[in-house]
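C2H2-type domain-containing protein
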Amino acid sequence: PLDSDLVMAAPCRIPVVVVLGCTGTGKSKLALELGRIFNGEIISADSMQIYKGLDIITNKVTIEERRICPHHLLDYLSPLHYNNTVVDFRNRALPIIDCLLKEKKVPIVVGGTNYYIESLLWKFLINQEDVNTAKVLADKSKVLQADQSHPSPLDTGIHPHQIPNANNEDTHENREGKESVQNHQLDHVEKPPVDRACGFNEDEEKVETSPSHMKKTHSSDDSTSSIKVEVLDQGQEKFENVDTTELHRQLQEVDPVSAQRIHPRNRRKISRALEVYEKFGVPISQIHKMQHEQTGGDNSISGPLRYEHTCIFWLQCEQSVLDERLDKRVDAMLQQGLIKELTDFHALYNASRIQENKKVDYTLGVFQSIGFKEFHKYLLLTEEKRNTDEGKKLFEEGVADLKVVTRRYARRQITWVKNRFLKRPGGGVPAVYSLDVTDVDKFDERVLKPAQETLQAILEERTPELKPIPAEKMAKNRPVHNVCEVCDGRIFTMESEWEAHLQSRKHKRMIEKKKRQAKHENQAKWIKLFETTAILDTLITRQQET
């Protein structure tokens, strides 16, 4: 490796460094080394490591490793806290990154929760500026439409001040009042809590994760967009008892563009679009259109990049080697005390759950961690039963399931990186540098050295010798509204989904089934005709005989 004393000696620009990679590739190891060499600090982007305790199951860096380089966003929430969202993470992380950049320190974002990382790199969330701009565009459009359908007040001899207000609520004063309320609502979005990076406190009891009424972030897939929309919870309660079909009808009235793009049964997206319109008075489709125009109208799946300078390293490993490494890691976690950690927390959780009369839910909070669901049956056994043949069997099943799920999760992480970084449509996609971590004995040579040299070149505004991974061309995915009559009226709102459906085995099987049904129905008609003819012939014959 290069001499760390020479690093950053020349005038330089500070990039945001991101270390990507599936579980088991050594992301933390590289981040620690880069942080030590480049005077950096690490921001954890792992949705499970935010919880206090449970160090084994969430695979946190050790206390000793944290002393090598300052870490942020670890251990700041109670594991019994279930409502943390990507918004809460972003609200905590951005002030840390901005503070580090001001102090000329390198922010190093590392973790396996890739959508957390996306929320930092791209401007995903709607803010007041987006709402105001969309309103202006919408108002201009309404004025143009009005001019085309109604004569000008000057042409009719009516003074503009004599025109009656069509909507008494839409006076200048009331608009100011509405905007004041909306600004107040969005103040919570723009003023996030911060952590100890610049003298702040991460303690959960002293710093709230987010305002109590701001708890949800949703991912919008309307048309070509995956822009996340930050909304308020109160609207969700309003829609709770309304039928999905009725909600879609309401959306059709206020935002026909979104209604056309969102599947009629996708209740979550329909509710979100209605809620945005209700809170801000602007169709969500108009806001998405405006955000896409900011990125050049290039069919991007998010808003513009947040940081001008970004350096992304992707740690990759041969699949067979990675699978073996992950299996060994599960064995190591068991030796470190994974079962005791799960058992202790399970007892704590059950005490809280029973007191609050709740059911076990593996989709909330730290229970989403790999391990809880796999060992659930074993954890329900008493200490005595765990030592029986049944207990040993359930334990072995849990171990096997944990290894399978871990390998499957790693594959999903790889797919996510490919789809969200390498295949990301449009501009505004930072360079991604691949590092081979297959041979752990050659980590310094194949991972640390090229990463260090690449980052140093970027700091000095030079072109790195290591070439970034070429972006993969991806066909544009246009919004459509296609109905497959063959498959009982299934609706498709994206072109790629429609084309994939037409080529699917299920669709082709349905075509063959319909053909057989048609053939059978046709045969049935002929049989019925023959039967009717035979009956008539019989009647005629009898009449003739009499």
